[in-house]
Amino acid sequence: MPDAKINGPEIDDVDVKRLLVEEITNAMEKAYNIPRKGYVVTIVENQPENIAIGGVLNVDRKTG
Predict the structure, then answer these.
(1) C-alpha angle 52-55-57 in degrees, rounded to nearest 5
(2) Which helix (H) or strand (E) holds 15?
(3) Whether 2 contacts 41, CB under 8 Å
(4) pLDDT tens-digit series, residues 13-58
(5) pTM above threshold 0.90
(6) CB distance 12 to 43 below 8 Å
(7) Which of 6, 31, 30 is nearest to 19 (CA)?
């Protein structure tokens, strides 16, 4: 069973999450040609203080 894990910042709107997993499932179904019930999509929400790039926490990065 194919699976997809999406790592990113928190999504507050559950309707946005519904659309995200639907679109990912659509793409997987098109690519693998397996019935929809065969896919697992997991959303992993990460806080900026839990992710670092290049040794710097995202919460400490300057924007702009």
Answers:
(1) 35
(2) helix 14-32
(3) no
(4) 999 999 999 999 999 999 999 999 999 999 999 998 999 999 999 8
(5) no
(6) no
(7) 6
State the DSSP H helix or E strand holding residue 3, giving kind and residue range, or none if neither. Answer: strand 3-8
Please answer whether residues 16 and 6 qualify as being in contact, where contact means their C-beta atoms are separated by less than 8 angstroms. no
Centre a 10 Å sphere on the Cβ of residue 28 and count the other Cβ atoms it contains: 19
Distance CA 31, CA 39 (A): 12
Is residue 58 a contact partner of residue 51, using CB atoms and an 8 Å limit?
yes
Q: Tokens standing for 3? A: 């699976």
Task: Give the C-alpha separation, 54 to 62, whole Å.
Answer: 13
| Cross-strand pairs, 42 | 5
